[in-house]
DNA sequence: TTAAGTGTTGCTCT
DNA sequence: AAGAGCAACACTTA
């Protein structure tokens, strides 16, 4: 699930339901996912503090408490954030939850436990320390930033898009979608893209991610929540190109499955 | 029952 | 030195 659009929705959920609320308790159901602090220390530090703000950079969500640092949440392969009403029973896989004074809870779920929640002092310092590139949807990530990120790189353009140290927020599924919309063959060398291709790529990064957020679509296969013309619903064996009807082909890159249309995304020179 | 899977890290090899 | 490939992480679903 969680690529940039998913985490953006988690951020909005936190903003809409929890900002300004007093944290009555922290329920750490799985201490293994908590980094940088012990459950007891986190409870001491965050109890009776107010949740001040939610921020996002790439795939990371930051929840900031008043004068008590921030929690940096990584959702891994299939983590999520859920708001639970006072009387609502906790679903499976809740690993950590903020229990507010009004009885509602904000729960961090992570079935596979790939991912973590880390207490940090400052989001910007964390971004710098992790070496994260500019957030794909931020104004700071402009066309010049894209060309700089791809400069002299010979690796496949899909791998470059997914490299969080160059651009933060794009994962396997949205990388495929962006390259489909930009009509670029995913295994093209990054430094082999001409000006026109890079312009299309930049436009596709912004429009695909923004569209996904606007449609409230995660990267799950939710056909009815994505506009027509998206590749994502056809991202499986037997899929058909939404543009030309050709059979969608699959490939492997770095152990991950990718999908593309051989008609709309032809190999350079082939 | 087996395989595949939305992310990241660390290791090895070229 | 960049970059490719792979395993590991833990667990669900097809």
Summarize the helices and strands and which ones pair or pack.
Layout (H helix, E strand, L loop, with lengths): L3 H15 L4 E6 L5 E2 L3 H8 L4 E7 L2 E6 L4 E5 L5 E5 L9 E7 L4 E5 L6 E5 L2 H8 L12 H8 L6 H6 L9 H10 L13 H20 L34 E5 L2 E5 L10
Parallel strand pairs: 2-9
Antiparallel strand pairs: 1-7, 3-4, 4-5, 5-9, 6-8, 7-8, 10-11
Helix pairs in contact: 1-7, 6-7
The structure holds a DNA duplex (14 and 14 nucleotides).
How would you sum up this structure, described in words?
The chain is an alpha+beta fold and 270 residues long. The chain folds into two domains: 126 residues, Alpha-Beta Barrel (N-terminal domain of MutM-like DNA repair proteins), CATH 3.20.190; 118 residues, Helicase, Ruva Protein, domain 3 (Orthogonal Bundle). It is 28% helix and 21% strand. It has a five-stranded mixed beta sheet with strand order 2-9-5-4-3, sandwiched between helices. The protein has a four-stranded antiparallel beta sheet with strand order 1-7-8-6. Strands 10-11 form a two-stranded antiparallel ribbon. Strand 10 and strand 11 form a beta hairpin. Helix 1 runs parallel beside helix 7 and helix 6 crosses helix 7. It binds a DNA duplex (14 and 14 nucleotides) through helix 6.
């Amino acid at each position: 699930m969680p690529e940039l659009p998913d985490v953006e929705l988690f951020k909005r959920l936190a903003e809409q339901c929890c900002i300004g609320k007093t944290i009555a308790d922290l329920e750490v159901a799985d201490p293994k996912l908590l980094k940088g602090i012990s459950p007891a220390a986190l409870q001491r530090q965050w109890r009776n503090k107010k949740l001040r703000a939610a921020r996002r950079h790439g795939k990371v969500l930051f929840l900031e408490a008043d004068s008590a640092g921030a929690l940096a949440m990584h959702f891994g392969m299939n983590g999520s954030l859920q708001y639970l009403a006072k009387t609502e029973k906790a679903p499976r896989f809740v690993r950590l939850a903020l229990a507010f004074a009004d009885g509602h809870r904000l729960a961090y779920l992570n079935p596979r436990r790939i991912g973590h929640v880390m207490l940090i002092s400052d989001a910007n310092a964390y971004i710098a320390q992790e070496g994260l590139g500019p957030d794909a949807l931020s104004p700071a990530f402009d066309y010049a930033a894209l060309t700089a990120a791809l400069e002299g790189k010979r690796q496949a353009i899909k791998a470059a898009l997914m490299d969080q140290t160059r651009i933060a927020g794009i994962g396997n599924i949205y990388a495929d979608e962006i390259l489909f919309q930009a009509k670029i063959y995913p295994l093209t060398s990054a430094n082999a893209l001409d000006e026109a291709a890079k312009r299309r790529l930049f436009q596709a990064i912004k429009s695909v991610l923004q569209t996904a957020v606007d449609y409230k679509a995660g990267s799950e296969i939710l056909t009815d929540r994505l506009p027509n013309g998206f590749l994502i619903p056809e991202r499986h064996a037997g899929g058909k190109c939404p543009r030309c009807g050709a059979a969608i082909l699959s490939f492997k890159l770095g152990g991950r499955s990718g999908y593309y249309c051989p008609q709309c995304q032809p190999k350079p020179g082939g």
